[in-house]
Amino acid sequence: MTTPIRTVMSPGRYVQGKGAIERLGEFVAQIGSSPLIVSDDVVWGFAGEQVTASFAAADLRVERVAFGKFATAAVVDALVEKILETKADVIVGVGGGSTVDAAKAAGYLAGIRWVSVPTVASTDAPTSALAVIYNEEGEFVEYRFFPRNPDLVLIDTQIVANAPVEFLIAGVGDALATWLEARATAAANATTMAGGLPTQTGTALAKLSWDVIWENALPALDAVRDNLVTPALEKLVEANTLLSGLGFESGGLAAAHAIHNGLTAAPQTHGLTHGQKVNIGSMAQLVLEGAPRAEIEDFIEFTTLVGLPTTLTEIGLTLDDEKELQAIGKAATLPGETIHNMPFVVTADDVVDALKSIERLSRSVRKARGLPAPVKYVQKHAPVLVGAH
């Protein structure tokens, strides 16, 4: 029998700051000499000029392949072929979570190094040693795990500030789950995504991400509404991206992200961001835990003020959608799902009951605290799909 180990994983280098993308070539040149860039047309439209200039300054070629919408198995395989065709020795994913994940997965299969350049702080995908693969309809298919993290993660906070605020809101939803899941994993002494038992480091970073978010999220979101880079935004971007990334990978995932994966089985949720669905998973996890009433009420108030959903209504579901709710519960509790890291057994029926219960619970708290009543979310921008988990 193998002796259990505790382990921490992290990217080789993390770079963050206003104008950081102007130095991308400098850092990529330390990793490889023949890069292949993966980026969708929208992202390339606002970042391509700076990336090209930075590569030219570092005497690197600019070889780019356009990315679509989902990190599917077919998309990853096509990228591998492009890597071989262009003789690339490092792949650079520039864009949202799925772009970054596709680059990581292709880089691993092709046996080259990989770089994450997120243009939004909407998930903690960029730092991790895993990717999420979807089907063509955007439904979760599988996690793919890699033996190492990206060699470089670089995020330009001015680009984050210029992006629609909804993306940063989604990042808050994703990152808030990190501590809730890490503490559950620690209580269960369960295995983390890093392939070992949780470390004090991973758990502590998860808690730090939670604390930084509660202190800085609201002023940071206001800054982004005015396209400004402030200290609060810098702190929130680091919490959403680095702290949450290290925290989830080496601290552990539990119910919140498993329920997110289950929610992808409901067509009504396909227009939502990863973080919006994760926040519903966090709500359901708090209910499953029987968390203190004050903690749940504070979580509802804070995430409502941030702009995240806390009811089924807001994600397009109702209590009468029995077929979809059962499908969600079944998918969330499949063998191997992270919900089994909870320190107690969770069944599909438990998940359904928890999801149903948050409707009345959230409505009553929001009414008591003078917060807006729930309305269905309308996705104004193309969803940024999860990359990391």
Labels describing this entry:
10% strand, 389 residues, Rossmann fold, six-stranded parallel sheet, globular, Dehydroquinate synthase-like, alpha domain, alpha/beta, disordered C terminus, two-stranded antiparallel sheet
What can you tell me about this protein's structure?
With 389 residues, the chain is an alpha/beta fold. The chain folds into two domains: 14-161, Rossmann fold (3-Layer(aba) Sandwich); 165-368, Dehydroquinate synthase-like - alpha domain (Dehydroquinate synthase-like, alpha domain), CATH 1.20.1090.10. The protein has 13 helices and eight strands. It has helices at residues 24-28, 41-57, 73-86, 97-110, 157-162, 165-188, 200-225, 231-251, 255-263, 274-289, 293-306, 322-332, 348-368; strands spanning 14-17, 35-39, 64-66, 90-95, 113-118, 130-134, 140-145, 152-156. The strands form two sheets. A six-stranded parallel sheet has the order 1-8-5-4-2-3. Helix 3 packs across helix 4 (97-110), helix 9 (255-263) packs across helix 10 (274-289) and helix 10 packs antiparallel against helix 11 (293-306). The two termini are 29 Å apart.
